[in-house]
Design a protein that fits this description.
This protein is α+β, with helices and mostly antiparallel strands. It has 2 domains: 45 residues; 135 residues, Glucose Permease (Domain IIA) (Distorted Sandwich). It has 3 helices and 12 strands; from the N terminus they run ααβαβββββββββββ. Strands 1, 4, 5, 6, 7, 8, 9, 10, 11 and 12 form a 10-stranded antiparallel sheet that branches. The longest helix has 33 residues. It starts with 9 loop residues before the first helix and ends in a 13-residue tail after the last strand.
C-alpha cells in the first residue's frame, strides 16, 4: 500500500479552514441568541413608574376616621341627600350666583381662622387653585378612601407628600360662593369613588365601612 504524502501547504490550509468554520459557527449561534432575546424583550411588559411614584399605603382597618378640625365650628351647608326633605335639599345646594349644584360635602365655618388636619394617613394626590372653590387639597388614603379639603389657604403640604392622621395641612379660607363665609372648610369624603356624608363616617373604622 502506498503511503499518502501531503504537500507542505495542505495541513496549514486545513487548520485555517477549520478555525474559520468554528468562528463562523460561533458567530451565527451568538447572532441567533441575540435575535431570540430581542423578541423576548419586545414582549415584556414593564411596570409603569407612576405606579411606584403614586403608591398609596393601605390603612389598618381598625383606624378611626377623624374630623378635619379641632375648633368649635358650625355647619353652614349640609351634604345633599337624595332621600332628605325638600327644605334640607335646598339648604344643601351650593349657590355660585349663576348656577346651583348639590353639595357633595359639608361646609364648616367658625368666627376665627382654624387649622385643617388630615382625617387619616395618606398621600397628597393634588393641590389646585379653583376660581370658585379656592385652594383644594386631595389626599388618597388607600382602602378606596379619598378626602378633599376645599376653600382653604396656606397649604403646608406638597403633591406626593405622605401625611399622617391629624397632621396639619392648611388653615380655613373662603371661596366665591354667593353665601360664602370668611373662615370655612368645604370638606368632601369619597369611598369607592362615591361622595359620602362625612358626618356619618367620622369615628368609624375602615372595617365598618
Amino acid at each position: 500500500m502506498k503511503k499518502l504524502v501531503l504537500r507542505p501547504f495542505v495541513l496549514p490550509t486545513i487548520y485555517v479552514s477549520a478555525v474559520v468554520l468554528i468562528l463562523l459557527g460561533a458567530y451565527f449561534s451568538a447572532l441567533s441568541l441575540v435575535n431570540a432575546n430581542d423578541k423576548y424583550v419586545d414582549n415584556l411588559e414593564y411596570v409603569n413608574s407612576s405606579i411606584i411614584d403614586n403608591d398609596i399605603p393601605v390603612i389598618k382597618t381598625d383606624v378611626l376616621i377623624k374630623r378635619p378640625y379641632s375648633a368649635n365650628v358650625t355647619i353652614i351647608k349640609d351634604f345633599y341627600e337624595t332621600n332628605s326633605s325638600e327644605d334640607e335639599q335646598i339648604n344643601a345646594l351650593l349657590n355660585f350666583g349663576d348656577y346651583y349644584v348639590p353639595n357633595e360635602g359639608i361646609i364648616y365655618s367658625a368666627d376665627k381662622e382654624f387649622d385643617i388636619y388630615a382625617v387619616m394617613s395618606g398621600t397628597v394626590a393634588s393641590i389646585i387653585n379653583d376660581d370658585d372653590l379656592g385652594t383644594i387639597v386631595e389626599i388618597r388614603h388607600g382602602n378606596n378612601l379619598v378626602s378633599v379639603y376645599q376653600s382653604i389657604k396656606d397649604a403646608i403640604v406638597q403633591v406626593n407628600d405622605i401625611v399622617t392622621q391629624g397632621q396639619k395641612i392648611a388653615v380655613s379660607g373662603t371661596n366665591n360662593m354667593k353665601d360664602k363665609a370668611a373662615n370655612q372648610l368645604h370638606f368632601e369624603l369619597y369611598y369607592l369613588n362615591e361622595a359620602v356624608n362625612p358626618e356619618t363616617y367620622y369615628d368609624k373604622k375602615i372595617s365598618e365601612l
